[in-house]
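Proteins fold reproducibly. Look at a concrete instance:
___
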Amino acid sequence: MTVDLDQYAKPGKGYYLALGLEGSANKLGVGIIKHHLGQLSSTNRAEVLSNVRDTYITPPGEGFLPRDTARHHRNWVVRIIKKALVEGNVRGTDLDCICFTQGPGMGAPLQSVVIAARTLSQLWNLPLVGVNHCIGHIEMGREITGAHNPVVLYVSGGNTQVIAYSDQRYRIFGETLDIAIGNCLDRFARTLMIPNEPAPGYNIEQMAKKGKHLVSLPYTVKGMDLSMSGILANIDQIAKDLFGKAKQVKNKQLIDEETGEPITSEDLCFSLQEVLFSMLVEITERALAHVNSNQVLIVGGVGSNERLQEMMKLMIQDRKNGQIYATDERFCIDNGIMIAHAGLLSYRTGQTNDLWNTVCTQRFRTDEVFIKWRDD
């Protein structure tokens, strides 16, 4: 049975327009998307009209605090919205709905974006649609890549999950037991004082490409779940021993046993990536076997890492007709267009939020969302 996505179409209008607001972490994004009437397919793709983003960057060695991040979002949201409307050649009154990230994420930044969404809703008399951040990543990934029913690896600064669709829910098959992979990489970047611009994870990836010695680190997979806090603590201590700045303590030197060469910060970045990504590949492969799938879709900011994509591709090649799907940084990294897309799918099935029901939440599980627009 095919879900009717046009029962709420406006008479005489052959398309839908939605504006999406994303601000669950340090990236503020606004996107405008267009759906033509009918089922989305290879011949009826969603059309990205604008996808504007601004990132709150902190100095090397520092993370981003909720209060400061929220201030950044409040300072920039009006300018970003105006820019998105101009780029998309759209007026506010042309839109069908306003979509916003309802969670999960950091409380203060989320609240800043919710207030902006409510304001636009009242200004233009448009319905509001709250969107789960992860669902936005998944649906945008499916739309951009054309993946039909893949196992989803969702890897970002705040989330690490292996997901598969079943019975109108995105079910979580495995996840982190403590910190997310993006958080692990970002915190190690702070230990090494790696710059946060354009992103600490990206800078670690570039350093890892120069590494050639694999340092022994813990490998912590527990069934379908994984743990990364112990790995981070271990490599943090190694880095402090090697590169500590205390003048009264002579820094240790770690030597590669095979080559006799000293271990560098590039080697540590390389080693951390290899271990973490190997763990992700293992639990993803186990999920593929469980649901009998041969497709993997990687979403989330860490999903743009070329080494992760390469390792996942090597694994999927062993499966018959195996395919891996991933998007570039425009759609992998948090953005407003994914919120607009997922929100518009909700709107087209009659799901909207009354004003009183637009409270954001820091904890919003992926499998809490009823996927009304899918019935396959």
